[in-house]
Prior knowledge:
The structure holds 2 protein chains of 2 kinds.
Chain A: H1 2-63, E1 81-87, H2 94-101, H3 110-118, E2 121-128, H4 132-144, E3 151-154, H5 157-165, H6 173-179, H7 182-189, E4 200-201, E5 204-205, E6 207-211, E7 220-224, H8 225-230, H9 239-251, H10 277-282, E8 293-295, E9 301-303, H11 310-322, H12 338-343, E10 349-352, H13 357-362, E11 372-376, E12 387-389, E13 393-399, H14 406-421, H15 427-430, H16 454-465, H17 474-484, H18 488-494, H19 500-507, E14 512-514, H20 523-544, H21 550-578
Parallel strand pairs in A: 1-2, 1-3, 12-14
Antiparallel strand pairs in A: 3-13, 4-5, 6-13, 7-10, 7-11, 8-9
Chain B: H1 2-5, H2 9-15, H3 17-35, E1 46-47, E2 59-60, H4 64-71, H5 75-106, H6 110-121, H7 128-139, H8 145-152, H9 164-192, H10 196-204, H11 209-233, H12 241-247, H13 253-256, H14 259-269, H15 273-302
Antiparallel strand pairs in B: 1-2
Helix pairs in contact in B: 4-15, 5-9, 5-11, 6-9, 7-12, 9-11, 10-11, 11-15, 14-15
Amino acid sequence: MKRNMYWALLLTTTLTAGLLAGCGSGNENGTQAPAEDNAAAEEAESAQDAESSSDGSKDAADAVATELYGAGEWRTYDDEITLTFGDPYDINNEGFTAMANIGEPYDDNRWIRYYREEVGVNAEYSLLAPNTEDYKQMLTLAMTSGDLPDVFWVPDLITYQQLIDAEAVADLTTLYQTEANPTLKKLVEGEGDNFLDNYKVDGKLYCVPGKMPSTNGYSYLWIRKDWLDKLGLAVPKTMDDVREVAKAFATQDPDGNGKDDTMGLSIDSSYTKMGSMGIFWAFGGKLANDNFWCTQEDGTVGFSMVQPEVKDALKWLNELYEEGILNQEFSTFNFVDYPELLASERCGMFYGCHWYAIYINAIKDEIPEAEWIPILAPGTDGNPAPVYANVDTNGLYCVNAACENPEAAFAVFNAYVEKLFGEKNDFENFFACEVDSNVWQRGPVSMLAADTDLKPHREMKEALANDAMDQLTGVGASYWKYIQEGSLTYQLEFGPEGSCFNLVDDTYPDIFNWNVYQGVPTQTQAARAGGMQEIIDTAYIKMINGELEIEEGFDKMVSDWMAAGGEQVTQEINDVIAAR
Amino acid sequence: MGIWNGTKGKKSGRKNLQLHVMMLPTILFLIVFSYVPMVGIIIAFQKFNPAKGLFGKNKWIGLENFRYIFSLPNTRQVVMNTLILSVSKIVIGTLLAIAVALLLNECRNRFLKKSVQTIIYFPYFISWIILAGMIGDMLSPSSGVLNQLIVALGGQPVYFLGDNRYFRGTLIVSDIWKTFGYNSVIYLAAITGIDSSLYEAAAIDGAGRWKQILHVTLPGMSMIIILMSVLNMGNILNAGFDQVYNLYSPGVYESGDIIDTMVYRMGIEQGQLAPSAAVGLLKSVVSLLLIAGSYYIADKKFDYKIF
């Protein structure tokens, strides 16, 4: 009996403590209550605003013309104000550490000083996480506890949508029109067709996208030129050529080790998202990032991965797979494993992005005779395949609805783009420096102009043509230095000749076809997109490895996808586009 | 358990105060990290938007999240995969561990016994992240050791990690390989605890090795077997997230996707926190029922008490 007494006692204490803890959070809740009331009041207000803005919107429309700042200008504050920021920065990484070692710690480096001195904004970080995954969880926590920074990076559109629904972020529609200067607007809207529409919810803009150069969207075919030469083959120009080369690589022992151990062509498990989309592009499939929407013949918009045009590419891949020339493990082969595969000399041709060059660079000492070249993903007619791409961004920036100076965010953005891309820029010191090649990412906000990656290539090419390599300055000079030091990464990506950006320079932007809809997920998309995509991912793999017959499998996949929410999503997206 | 057995009356209760105080940190830990977070289950019944706050104005939608989960096309398959994987792992794993423990116990060569024990125990300490890389390399159809052996023996290479026919088997075998050493050590410990006079008595009665195992060893370790089985019942919906997540790919979702991996993709990758919480809650309730049920049976049928 006594024993039970103890248990009872223990249980009571535990429960009491639990209750106390409960009370604790209850109290918190109590203090939150006024805030909720405020929120409710604000909601009521904003409802009124909405009403008044229906007639006030004309005023807003008129206000478009009143851009407050010209190129090279931005709002400044005489009395310094403090803005808190949230960013996914690993302040202990190589770059931040190198900067800190030259007397510029992350919270007092050239960017922070610049904003303090020339904008009057004291930038502080209140939310930092070493990587996107952690940042996302910390941001969710900050959202839940109502503890958001003034200006913060948002990793994805689902989170963006949630923030808008909860009225946690400021409406920037008018501010963008009045406060953003022409340099910023040009940078943000420079690519795609009415790109900013993607971020508008009910006609209102709540963010500034972290714009990146879309030139990352290309798909290249990487080939071992020394193997081509050895087997007396020409650089492939069409998909039939690619197949011939693949067959030869697989069967004619290009590495000369006397063993039948080479594959013809490799793709990796991200083949529909990046790098290998060129195969689909060649046959008319419009794939990019698993989210490409295209205009169909009847004028409506459809999801590219369920359009019949992808079938020819799947068939091509299936035939190569069955003949044993395609990487038989593509569905489980992660691109980070390329160094191992390339070092084993079992692969002489693969599809990939420009930055796959790092994997070639990684093994250059192991196989010094390997001579890799990139070519644009070939089409079927001898020309490169068209490119289908999203306007590239690295997340987006939102402003806390409770922020007292939302316009200060634009002062910072304006100052940022002017420093890097404006008339009076200081690109050389603020894009990269001696110790850190990514200084542009060491401030609280960052975005890059569309031609940022092209520029150093063009500089090097021009200098080479004029035989003036020693007169190079800035990024071009440092890239050239890396190349001289033997970096294959820089040579193959940006080098003056035979590099990926050499191919980009010839074709950008004419070869691009932009995504028709890369905007916030619709209601059904938010709830169902993951499962819907899994239907496609699984079916594609099975059609390529022959588990499913293509015609039959494709029809089944489309009907499954439609039933799982695809039909509704398509309708919703068409409605959104029609309402623009 | 021991603490309570020693208590006799109020006096000794006071004497045990020290021990109670020593328990306090654990209890606090449990409250803070296990009980308080349970408040979070409310989001399973909400249309939850994190930006509105945990106690914010999220809409209450009753069982809508649960309905949504069961409306997903692959839920049935995922539940089946989970059950098949976990039941196979538990049943085969337990039987194998018992068998190995019995064999090791019969082994008279000390060196052999210890080295076998160490070797089979070792994989238990390697994390799945690392093992997944190793297994991926070993099982690769083109360059993996195992497939090179199969080819050398005249067979066709098998795509263990990419083929739905083999994926489940690969998961089960690799998991058992990793854990049976650990489990057999537990059983071995139970065998060591058996009074040796029982064996002598059995031997005098004319029982051979086999009869001794059957009538002395197995009954002697039955309590541990029951305990392990009861505890395992609570894990029946956990088919091993760490393992599956690191080994699977979209091509084998059909045979290898389990509840935990589905929830991970839904909650973390797609930001649907409420349905994920609903699955978590459902899993906990089912596990609680199973563990309580099996404890009840163990109590009634075998007179076994944990508490």
